[in-house]
C-alpha cells in the first residue's frame, strides 16, 4: 500500500488520537489549576501550550481527517475555502506551539539564572504579553498564504489540499524554516543554561548549607489584607523537578515536531515537491506531541491532582468566587512590584517593616554578581518578609 493510500486509513487514527488528546489536555489544564493557589507565569504558559494542542487536534487535524474520509465518497465536491482555512489554522497553531515551548524554556532559564531579577520584574504581565505576541505573529504569517502569498503557477488548494511548504511557495517556506529553526535553537540553548544552573545550584546547596535564598515578601495594606506577594526561592526538589519537566517538554517537542518539521520542510523545498510520507510524518508528529504533554504533567508531583481537587476547582470556577485574592490574576501585582523596586532602590524605611538593609544589600549584590561585604545569613524556608503599604500613599516614577 502506497503512502497516499494510507491517508484515509490514518485519518481514523488521527480522529481517535485527537479526541483522546483533547480530553487529556483539558484534564491537564484543570490539574494545573487545581494544584496552584496562585497563578504563576510558568503555569500559565504550560496551560496555554496545552490549550494550543487542544485547538490543533480539534480544528485543523480534525478537518483534514474528515476531508480525507469524505473524499472516498463519489458525491464529494472539493472546497477550496476549506483548504485555505486548514492551512492557515494548522500553521498558526504549529508556530504557536513552537514559540510557546521556547517561551517556557526562556522563562525557566530566567528564573533559575537570575532569580532576584525574575521576581522583581512583572513576569506575570510579561507572560500575557508574550502569549499575545506569539499568537499575533503566528496568525499574521499563516494567514498570508490564504490571501495571496503563494505560488500562483500551481495553487496549493486547486487539486487537493497540499499543505507542505514547498506546495505553498518559496517565500513562505523560507520564512517558516527560519522561524522554526531559530525558535528550536533558542529553546535548546535556554534549556541547557537552565539545566546547568539548576544542577550547579543543587551542588552548591549541598556543599554550603548557608547558601543565599531569596525571601518571600508579602505586601499588605494598613488593615492587614494581603495586596500581593513576591515568591521566595524554590525548594531544591521543586526547582529540579520543574526544570526537568521543562527540559523534557523541550526535548520531546524537538524530537517529535521541531526537527521533523524542519527536515520535511527543507526536503520539500529542495525537491520543489511534496510526498505523501511528508503529510503522514507531520500530522502524526503533531498528534503524538499533543498526547505526551498531559503525561508529563501527570508525572510531575507539583501538577498532579486527583479527581476531588479538580472537581472542587471546577465548582469554584463556576461559582466565580469574589473573595479570591487579587494575586491570583496574571495582570495583578504591578503595584507591589513598583513598591518593592522603589523600596529597594530608595529605602522608604518608614513605610515598611521587616525588610532590613542587610537583606537589601545581599539581594542587590547577588543580582550584580559582586562580592558581599558581610557574610550571607541563611534564611528559613518558611521565613517571610512583610511589607505594609499605606492605603493613600502612592509612589510615582519621577
Automatic annotation (TrEMBL):
Keywords: Membrane, Receptor, Transducer, Transmembrane, Transmembrane helix. Residues 24-219 form the G-protein coupled receptors family 1 profile domain. Its main location: membrane. GO terms for molecular function: G protein-coupled receptor activity. It is found in: Membrane. The keyword Phosphoprotein does not apply. InterPro entries: GCR_153/162, GPCR_Rhodpsn, GPCR_Rhodpsn_7TM, GPR153. The chain crosses the membrane at residues 12-32, 44-65, 85-106, 127-148, 168-196, 242-263, 275-299. Pfam families: 7tm_1. The keyword Transmembrane applies. It comes from the Eukaryota. GO terms for cellular component: membrane. PANTHER family: G-PROTEIN COUPLED RECEPTOR 153, 162, G-PROTEIN COUPLED RECEPTOR 153-RELATED. This is Probable G-protein coupled receptor 153.
Amino acid at each position: 500500500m502506497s503512502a497516499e493510500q494510507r491517508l484515509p486509513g490514518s485519518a481514523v487514527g488521527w480522529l481517535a488520537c485527537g479526541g483522546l488528546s483533547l480530553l487529556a489536555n483539558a484534564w491537564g489544564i484543570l490539574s494545573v489549576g487545581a494544584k496552584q493557589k496562585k497563578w504563576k507565569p510558568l503555569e500559565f504558559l504550560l496551560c496555554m501550550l496545552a490549550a494550543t494542542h487542544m485547538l490543533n487536534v480539534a480544528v485543523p487535524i480534525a478537518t483534514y481527517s474528515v476531508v480525507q474520509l469524505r473524499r472516498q465518497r463519489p458525491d464529494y465536491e472539493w472546497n477550496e475555502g476549506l483548504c485555505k482555512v486548514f492551512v492557515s489554522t494548522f500553521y498558526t497553531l504549529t508556530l504557536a506551539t513552537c514559540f510557546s515551548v521556547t517561551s517556557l524554556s526562556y522563562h525557566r532559564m530566567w528564573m533559575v539564572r537570575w532569580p532576584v531579577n525574575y521576581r522583581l520584574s512583572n513576569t506575570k504581565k510579561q507572560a500575557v504579553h508574550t502569549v499575545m505576541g506569539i499568537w499575533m505573529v503566528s496568525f499574521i504569517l499563516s494567514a498570508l498564504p490564504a490571501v495571496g502569498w503563494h505560488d500562483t503557477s500551481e495553487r496549493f488548494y486547486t487539486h487537493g489540499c497540499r499543505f507542505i511548504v514547498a506546495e505553498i511557495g518559496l517565500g513562505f517556506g523560507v520564512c517558516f524554516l527560519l522561524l522554526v529553526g531559530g525558535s528550536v535553537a533558542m529553546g535548546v540553548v535556554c534549556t541547557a543554561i537552565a539545566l546547568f544552573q539548576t544542577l550547579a545550584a543543587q551542588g552548591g546547596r549541598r556543599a554550603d548549607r548557608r547558601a543565599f535564598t531569596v525571601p518571600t515578601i508579602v505586601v499588605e495594606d494598613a488593615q492587614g489584607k494581603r495586596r500581593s506577594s513576591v515568591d521566595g526561592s524554590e525548594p531544591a526538589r521543586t526547582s529540579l523537578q520543574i526544570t526537568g519537566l521543562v527540559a523534557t517538554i523541550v526535548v520531546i517537542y524537538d524530537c517529535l515536531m521541531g526537527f521533523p518539521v524542519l527536515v520535511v520542510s527543507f526536503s520539500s523545498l529542495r525537491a520543489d515537491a511534496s510526498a505523501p510520507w511528508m503529510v503522514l510524518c507531520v500530522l502524526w508528529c503533531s498528534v503524538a506531541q499533543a498526547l505526551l504533554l498531559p503525561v508529563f504533567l501527570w508525572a510531575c508531583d507539583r501538577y498532579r491532582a486527583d479527581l476531588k481537587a479538580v472537581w472542587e476547582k471546577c465548582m469554584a470556577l463556576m461559582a466565580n468566587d469574589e473573595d479570591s485574592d487579587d494575586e491570583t490574576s496574571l495582570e495583578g501585582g504591578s503595584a507591589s512590584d513598583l513598591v518593592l523596586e522603589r523600596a529597594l532602590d530608595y529605602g522608604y524605611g518608614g513605610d515598611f517593616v521587616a525588610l532590613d538593609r542587610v537583606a537589601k544589600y545581599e539581594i542587590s549584590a547577588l543580582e550584580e554578581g559582586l562580592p558581599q561585604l558581610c557574610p550571607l545569613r541563611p534564611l528559613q524556608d518558611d521565613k517571610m518578609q512583610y511589607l505594609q503599604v499605606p492605603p493613600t500613599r502612592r509612589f510615582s516614577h519621577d
